[in-house]
Amino acid sequence: MAFIEERLLNRIAYGFTGGPSFLTTKVALFSGRVARNAERSKPLYVFNAPYGAIQQEHFNLVVASFNACLGGLHSFRFRDKADDSGTSEVIGTSTGDADQELQLIKTYTFGGQSTVRTIKKPVVGTVSIFENGSPLSSTVDATTGIVTFTGNLTSPLSVITATYKFDVPVMFMDDDLQFSIVELNAMSAEINLKEDLSA
Questions:
Q1: How far apart are CA 90 and CA 107, in angstroms?
Q2: pLDDT, tens digit, for every residue of 105-161?
Q3: Same domain, 151 and 178
Q4: Does 144 share its domain with 173?
């Protein structure tokens, strides 16, 4: 089981579906109330990615990806067109040390409730880091989402923010790949993907 630092062909057709999934146990009580318990602390993203009438060269790329991954064995990058970026995301506060490291994250907030998503697969060349709103010199590991500062920070406790695009680490949910011929030299298929939280 390995992770392949390549993005699945980004030619998804209309009809794409996907998003976060939680697991909550619900028990109806005699009083009529419902007791709820979260079985998973983080969302698991699942996708249905349709390829509609793709040409032979693109069909070959998808088949190559599936075969190289041995079906659902290996994981890879996927662009979730519905949620693929973060803007001015607070990733932490500085300690004043030049060798400080921070993890890219994205925070989702509704009212007073928030949940934090770890961003491990930023897109190369899209990450900008800021200290109190000013650009900050840093390096970003595109395989882990770890930010390392390359210069002295202005002061301790300054706010560090990030703007970036990111991919989702996923695996094929199925071990078979079925394409259909929809027109001359054009293929169509629907591929089911699941986020790999261990990547």
A1: 8
A2: 999 999 999 999 999 999 999 999 999 999 988 899 999 999 998 766 667 889 999
A3: no
A4: no
Torsion 126-132-135-136 (CA) sign: negative
Whether the full predicted model's pTM is greater than 0.85, yes or no, is: yes
Residue 15 structural domain: 3-79+169-195
Buried b (16+ CB within 10 A) or exposed e, 162-192: bebebbbbbbbeeeeeeeeeeeeebbbbbbe
Same domain for 52 and 74, yes or no, is yes
**Judging by DSSP bridges, how do beta strands 138-140 and 44-55 pair with one another?**
unpaired
User: Domain count of the chain?
Assistant: 2
- Hey, which residues does 110 pair with through a beta bridge? 113
User: Which segments of 150-185 are extended strands (E)?
Assistant: 159-165, 168-172, 180-183
Contact 78, 167 (CB under 8 A): yes
Instruction: Assess whether 96 and 153 both reside in one domain.
Output: yes
DSSP 122: B
